[in-house]
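If your schedule permits, I should be very grateful for your opinion on a structural question. I have a record of one protein: its chain in single-letter code and its fold written as discrete structure tokens. Would you kindly read the sequence against the tokens and tell me how you understand this chain to fold? Thank you for your consideration; the sequence and its tokens are set out here.


***
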Amino acid sequence: FYLNSFNNKMEVFNLLFNQAPKITKILILSSFSISILVWSGLITTLDIYLNYALIIKRFQIWRILTTFLYFGELNLSLVFNMVVFFRDSKDLEKKIFHGSCADYLYFLFICMFFLLFINIFTNVVFLSSSLNFAMMYYWGRKSKTTNVEFMGIFSFPAPYLSIFYLLIMFLLGYDYHNLFIGIIVGHVYFFGKEIMPRIKGLKGAKFFETPDFMNKFCEFFDLNNDFIIENEEQNFMF
């Protein structure tokens, strides 16, 4: 019975993964691979944590990416974080950005840029949870017609999802500061992308417009998605 249940879950996961857009697949595989490498002992967290001195002096550029991709050791917490990360990334790339690889990549770039800048003053070694909450916040703000159901107990509008998670972490006594920073960065992007272009005198928000070289990059590496955009679901459960 348990073997059949496990196999069924794996089949569902494989189906969802195969239907996921390309950037999401790359992010999930990269993140899971890093956790496997740490678990196997081939690398340690000392090799991948964010350290500006090592990046500048020893040119260890990979730390800029690994700080956003490492969610922790192989345990239930990692599984939960990866599921949330997969869900948010898939919905953003597939629905919010309408399958545009370049727009989604530039969104990630801007969020990472601001998180790295803020981290100069906060000195956090791993920023994966902050990036995830920036993604969750923007997804919620762009999914106003979606209702989120919590364990079938109650439901609330999607824009409040990241705030709800933040409140839960606060009440349970977990460190919530990184999550709060992620929400701030998500709001910065939302304001720059959705609000600033409407303000008179600003002439749009050029910084938040996807540069042409990113479109060419996605075309060169064949990263654009060719699926049909689905209608947004009205109910979402977690």
In short: The chain has a mean pLDDT of 86. The radius of gyration is 18 Å. The CA atoms of residues 134 and 186 lie 4 Å apart. The longest strand covers residues 147-150.
